[in-house]
Amino acid sequence: MSFTRESWPIAAALHQFSHPSVQDASVDVWLDTLRQVASVGFASIDLTDSWVRIGDLTPERFADFQQTLSSAGMDAPALSITRRSVIDPLTGDDNLAYTHRTVDAAAALGTGVLSLGLHRPLTVEQKKQLWFWNAKSDGDPIEDFDAWELAVTRFREIGNHAADYGMQVSLEMYEDTFLGSADSAVRLINDIDLPNVGLNPDIGNIVRMHREIEDWRDMLAKTLPYTNYWQVKNYYRDEDAATGSIFTAPAPLMLGFINYREAVRDALALGFQGVICCEHYGGDGLAVSGLNADYLRTLLPATSQETRA
């Protein structure tokens, strides 16, 4: 089956609803959030675990969550585990166990894609920033062969578990990790070498950095052939060659530095048929995500015949 612009699964991220109290909140709180998401045109969510960790719900609460999702007329084709690196030197073992619990819960929910990354919890300095990415994050030991092999081994383990349910695993690009450049991300996928483990080329995470970056077209040219899920967001970016200063700020998808008309065209040409997730930081991020979804649908094929062409 080929998706069209009307049937293509485009999901909303839920970062803007994150709060520690949500995990133990009433069903009414969950339902209110999902109805807000539906009000801007979404029928699908990326079940971001900074909102609700379904892998940590009791069986009774999980049943409540399933019913709430259904009552809101929503589905969750994708689930993102955030800042739970399975190679974190302090919490990696616990994060691995949590990921396995989440795979089981996601399968019970009917979720088809699990998005994972190697980014770690925000540092104290990051929390002080208006935009957290403007302070240095805790990264991976890029030249450490043993750490690389641990990442390969653990992602392969998770991939095999997900495959038992017919689930895809998608690894999110993120700065200063083993997924922090296109070349490194592709190498990691090739080393894992499982058909259900691919890339989430969220190059917005790279474009927003106040540093020299690889051309976004080159990053996508390398990663799109391995893409099985795609979180999309955009940023304004300005570089002053005379002073070396760089400025970035969140932007609606159609207005930012990355040309998503070109990016989506190239993805479709390579046969991409995965879930797309809209993210946006700042302001009314949900409303901007809704606008971004409307824009994306204008770029997607109108008919299945057009998709195959």
Features:
single chain; 309 residues; TIM Barrel; five-stranded parallel sheet; 10 strands; 14% strand; globular
Topology:
Layout: E1 10-12, H1 27-39, E2 44-46, H2 59-71, E3 75-80, H3 92-109, E4 113-116, H4 124-128, H5 145-163, E5 168-172, H6 182-192, E6 197-200, H7 204-207, H8 216-223, E7 230-232, E8 234-239, E9 246-251, H9 260-269, E10 276-278, H10 285-299, H11 304-308
Parallel strand pairs: 1-10, 2-3, 3-4, 4-5, 5-6, 7-10
Antiparallel strand pairs: 8-9
Task: Put the structure in a nutshell.
Helices cover 39% and strands 14% of the residues. The protein is an alpha/beta fold.
Explain what this protein looks like in three dimensions.
- The protein has 309 residues and is α/β, with parallel strands linked by helices.
- The chain has one domain: TIM Barrel.
- Helices cover 39% and strands 14% of the residues.
- The protein has helices at 27-39, 59-71, 92-109, 124-128, 145-163, 182-192, 204-207, 216-223, 260-269, 285-299, 304-308; strands at 10-12, 44-46, 75-80, 113-116, 168-172, 197-200, 230-232, 234-239, 246-251, 276-278.
